[in-house]
Specification:
mainly alpha, two-stranded antiparallel sheet, single chain
Length: 128
Amino acid sequence: MNIREITKRIKWKEGTSESSKGTSGATKSRTIKRIQTMADAIEAQFPTVRYCNQIKLKHMKYLKEAWFDNEGFAPTTMSDYTRSMRLMITALDKDRHWFGHLGLVQDRTRGGRRVVSRVTKTRSRNRR
């Protein structure tokens, strides 16, 4: 599956000074590779889904509930894939609706890894 529509919406943190380092190339490539692997797993299980915009909530549920377990990932690898899944869902602009169903809502008070990427929101071309 071509994930270009997803990856072009992801913006990575740029390092402007010594105190704020940007995202490393290795982090970018690992995250993109994980998103590609998940998209390929969806396409293998659901052959009719050939484009990013065809991905639905049931496909993400398959990844989270079946594919993660079948692959036998270690807990840290599973959390890395979950982080990439959050980014993928946000890039598809489905985060408000899908995070609750998938149990991906984060508690901001618990902390976690620093955010090194964000997703740009598209605007309608007809707006002024």
